[in-house]
Design a protein that fits this description.
- The protein is an alpha/beta fold.
- About 30% of the residues lie in helices and about 20% in strands.
- It contains seven helices and ten strands.
- Strands 5-10-9-6-7-8 form a six-stranded parallel sheet.
- The longest helix is centred in the first third of the chain and has 13 residues.
Length: about 240
């Protein structure tokens, strides 16, 4: 199960060695990256539906490389594998750590972030939280927002009448992020602690410009993490002879 850059790397490896594998992603993005494997798009119908899918397709190993904030699907995967004899291998990329020069305000979740922002006086807020949660920021009618999305926003613009949109897909580089933040005169960045290299440029840029970051912490997922680095996971798959 994927949808992340690391999942794409895993898929390419499995395709290279000729493994009998199926790649699954939620299908929320209209223009996903090309995957060199048979693809399942969309949900499964909860843990029970995923259990049936694994059984019907004779899946012996399930690699969960979904986004660190995809709590429900990761927990469904753990339940489904426990229902069967399928081996669960869970990858979750390492989270970012606050460094010297960073100015982070920690928030437990998106709702708490919106509530906190409503009590503040920031003028230009950059949203780097992903498309699925943007509608929650519609309550901030008196704050100017800049939201980064990977594709053209829908006609209702997620209900964000006060937002400008930057359409771009990572990985990003620091100089471009600095230029973007200066262009929009950003005085706060809202980000999930997604980890990884592809989106870290905004953290470096914020540090350089002295912009605070409202950092949304990861949800607690009831499933153990086996690997935090793709290279270790690929070595494990090679040892398994997958």
């Amino acid at each position: 199960m994927g949808g992340t850059s690391e999942a794409n790397q895993i898929a390419k490896y499995l395709a290279t060695i000729g493994a009998a594998a199926i790649y699954s992603y939620a299908g929320r993005t209209l223009s996903p990256r090309e995957i060199p494997l048979p693809v399942h798009v969309g949900g499964f119908g909860g843990a029970a539906g995923l259990t049936c899918f694994l059984e019907d397709n004779n899946i012996t190993h399930l690699v969960d490389a979904t986004h660190p904030f995809a709590k429900q699907i990761s927990e469904n995967a753990a339940i489904a594998c426990k229902n069967l004899v399928t081996v669960l291998i869970r990858f979750e990329r390492k989270s970012w750590d606050e460094q010297e020069g960073d100015d982070w305000i920690l928030s437990a979740n998106i709702d708490a972030a919106v509530q906190w922002l409503g009590s503040q006086k920031f003028k230009q807020v950059f949203l780097a939280t992903g498309m699925q949660s943007l509608n929650k920021f519609a309550a901030l009618s008196e704050t100017s927002l800049v939201a980064r999305v990977v594709e053209q926003p829908p006609a209702d613009s997620f209900g964000l009448a006060n937002a400008a949109f930057e359409i771009a897909r990572g990985p990003f580089i620091v100089d471009d992020e600095i230029a973007l933040f200066e262009k929009h005169r950003i005085d706060l960045i809202v980000s999930k602690n997604s980890g990884g290299k592809g989106a870290y440029a905004k953290i470096n840029a914020a540090r350089t410009l002295g912009i605070p970051i409202l950092m949304i912490e990861r949800p607690v997922i009831n499933a153990p993490v086996d690997f935090q680095y793709v290279s270790d996971l690929l070595n494990h798959l090679e040892c398994l002879g997958v």
